[in-house]
Amino acid sequence: MQHILTATGVSKTYRSGFHALKGIDLAIRPGEIFALLGPNGAGKTTLISIVCGIVNASSGRIEVDGHDIVRDYRAARSLIGLVPQELTTDAFESVWNTVSFSRGLFGKPPDPAHIEKVLKALSLWDKKDSKIMALSGGMKRRLMIAKALSHEPRILFLDEPTAGVDVTLRRDMWQLVRELRATGVTIILTTHYIEEAEEMADRIGIINKGELVLVEQKAELMRKLGRKQLTLQLTARLAQVPPALAAYALTLSADGLELTYTYDTQSGRAGIAALLDALSGLGIAFKDLHTTQSSLEDIFVGLIEDNTP
Which residues form the ABC transporter domain (predicted)? Predict the structure, then answer.
């Protein structure tokens, strides 16, 4: 499969000696939604800034649709739209002029029909003549996306796109991202909201201390690293977990009326069947049971902790 963006051995060391990125290798597929997760200072924004030509890498190579971002900067950058974390706009300019000007910065000829389409898609059309200073925070965030889409990029970087917006607007933004992907735009987003990645992403990348810890299909990541728990509500109180059940590493509740079995999602059925047989053999009955599965947040926290000295 041809990739629309590839990073090979990308590192960044600042003059202070801080290693922001350490040999990042990453390949992004056309038309996917890729979520880059990591704690503050992990290197997410640094990586995006290098791809977008804002920061220079210390070493390594990045290509955008076959264009080297250093040797063929203009062609590479024209394929990229960036929505930064910070809302940086001219407060006294109108929405229409701001988006139109952004298109011109990339050498694209005026295209009022495209600007209209973008503003309508972002629910900004009725604000086209408004001064930016009059917009709400959520509208300003949408305006940043409109600016990034003004020159018809094939890749859209969203750096913390829903930071500081309410839950309703956040879900509207999720829907917008899906619609953009449906038009063929590749979406790469960083986020602190784990549910955002869980809701939207096709693949997940986890970065910590400048190193790419893991890149995986979301569903496969959940399958391989997710843990499930089976909780059994017992009909009679137990004083302790019987020694014969030690192999299952069961947890007994304080009141002695619940047993919890934590198991691997890949071998869960066999383990549960064996556990139920063992319980039956010991005469331990239960009146109800239910299962829970770890979320992407649980997986993320576990991976970060495992990779923290």
Answer: 5-234
Cα–Cα distance measured from residue 208 to residue 303, given in angstroms and rounded to the nearest whole number = 9
What pLDDT is stored for residue 294 in this prediction? 58
pLDDT exceeds cutoff 80 at 173: no
Which tens digits make up the pLDDT trace of 226-243? 567 788 899 989 989 998
* Class of the domain covering 227-293: alpha beta
5-222 CATH: 3.40.50.300
* 1-5, 41-45, 95-99, range with greatest mean pLDDT: 95-99
Q: Kindly list the domain boundaries of the chain, sorted by start residue.
A: 5-222, 227-293
Per-chain mean pLDDT for the chain: 84
Give 44-49's long-range contacts (Cβ < 8 A, gap of 24+). 44/159, 44/190, 44/207, 45/85, 45/159, 45/190, 46/12, 46/20, 46/21, 46/210, 47/7, 47/10, 47/21, 47/207, 48/82, 48/157, 48/159, 48/188, 48/190
